[in-house]
Amino acid sequence: MVFLRSIALLLLLVSSVGVAWSQSLQLVPWKDELFALPPTLEERDGGDYRIVNYSSQKEINERDAVNEKKVKKEYVSLEPLKFQKDARIKTKAGWVRHFTVGRTEGASIIVFYIHGHRGSREQGVDDWTFGGNFNRLKNLAVKSGGLYISPDFQGFTGRGAQQIAGLIEHYKARSPNAKLILSCGSAGGRICYQLAKKDAIAAQMDGIMFLGSFSDNGFLSSDAFKDRVPIYIGHGSRDYISLVENLEGFYRSIRARDPSYPIKMVRFETGTHGTPIRMTDWRGVINWMLSAK
Length: 293
Known about the structure:
Shape: globular
Order of helices and strands: HEEHEEEEEHEHEHHEHEHEHH
Number of domains: 1
CATH superfamily: Alpha/Beta hydrolase fold, catalytic domain
Strand content: 15-25%
CATH topology: Rossmann fold
Largest sheet: 10 strands, mixed
CATH class: Alpha Beta
Number of strands: 12
Helix content: 25-40%
Structural class: alpha/beta
């Protein structure tokens, strides 16, 4: 009887620790100083909106060994390659090729990178481009017991969104307690907006990141908005593919509808279309999302 009580007490303690760990999950530090945001020029809304002083001279010319092709070695660790796999699974919308980095079962967090036009699953696992920022995300995921996924998909409407939904269902079934973060580059935002409208997927979201992406006021009627899923917008002021004014208007429309909504925006002054992918502080943004929802 004493033995059974001891076992029950132990199980209760383990369960309590697990719940507390899940509620307080944060990505561990990794090269934070090298990947820190540039100095702030201006901030509003209690710091939720920030303009930072992006410099291509510093962040490309001085950071890369070969401009926009290979970052300097100190920004990279290839340790996550031990945990990286080129996978293929069948969803209801067909077969989907994708890279996984980290724990494919029992993960603490699952982070997706949804690429834009002319992108591919390889873009999101390239260790050397975009100033080493994808390599940092891979390291953060592995060191935090998480899973990072960079998928291919067929188109930015309909089938493509269904395929990503299938991947989410597949990996969430293997890590049911994992937090779910979607990062959407450029046109990849269209996939994320569609998923935000799917109740079954939105209910599992813990954050959406729009990086050099597009606005969609339909988000205001989505399930993700109703669930107050945290939003991050990173955008370059000289992005001529998607104008920063449109994203600022999107940011303001959400705050106007719900002034306390968990949303942040960083405007990279003089930055262009790819700047947010190079410069976004994955750890800072994701940790804020984990604590905000």
